[in-house]
Input
Amino acid sequence: MPKRTDTRQRVLDTAAVLFQQQGYEATGLNQILTESGAPKGSLYFHFPGGKEQLATEALAMSGARLSRRLEDDLRQAATTAEAVDAIVNHLAERLVESDYAAGCPIATVALEATGNETIRRTCDDAYRSWERIIADHLASRGVPQENAGPLATTVLATIEGALLLAKTRKDLAPLRDAAAVLRPLLDPPSPQQA
Output
């Protein structure tokens, strides 16, 4: 017999995928339960706050997963531009594997979250976490602290916008173009190379 935590995690994982692909409003609790294979009574047992609690936890989990991916890619890459290429390639693979349904794990919900402060804050926390990770990396590579934050925001906004365009067009070109534009911005040529 599966443990209770297995059921909880299955529900969270299923909700995360559905919120990513369909958004908050279009994702119903019955669909989450059906697709996760969880018994009806388990939802409110594990998530007494209902759909809002489930969404908040699923979004936080998705945000943390992408944070770890960012940290790993940034740590393993020889240059910041290489890390951006790795991140873009990961996002592109997920788009293709999902037939362009799986964009950013937060964006679909973030776009409709203006009326729910709890969910809006959870989405904002994820975006700010990603910005901090990128900014810290840039600062560690010699970008002045006062420039690292705005540059991190630019990187994130560029990738996020490119991901939305790629998903909408069912074409990876916007992601590839964004990576190409970001490369010289992140790792400018030295004066000897220029």
About this structure: The chain has one domain: 4-186.
